[in-house]
Design brief:
single chain; 93 residues; 3 helices; 82% helix; 0% strand
Length: 93
């Protein structure tokens, strides 16, 4: 009985040793670390750029933005008409 238990323990120990030897992880080199860092930074700025673009698009199309643009356009149109009527050649002086 003790011999069977000893053999079982020995087999488990050997399988653990061979599994850990096969799974040895190599540490990335410095150039691989820089490449990974560059990819991470590029991904970060791409995400930030997409979010900023979306936010500016939403702001441009918002109700207050449209009302403000229309208000300025109307004021500019009225001012332009007033200048044309006031400074037209042959008009009243």
């Amino acid at each position: 009985m003790q011999l069977a238990v000893s053999i079982a323990v020995l087999l488990v120990a050997l399988s653990a040793v061979t599994d850990s030897a096969e799974v040895s992880v190599t540490e990335p080199t410095l150039s691989q670390k820089f490449e990974r860092f560059q990819e991470d930074v590029q991904t970060f700025f791409d995400d930030v750029g997409e979010k900023a673009k979306g936010a500016l698009h939403d702001l441009h199309n918002s109700e207050i933005s449209n009302k403000t643009r229309n208000w300025f356009a109307e004021k500019f149109r009225k001012l332009k008409e007033r200048f044309q009527t006031t400074f037209t050649p042959g008009g009243t002086d």
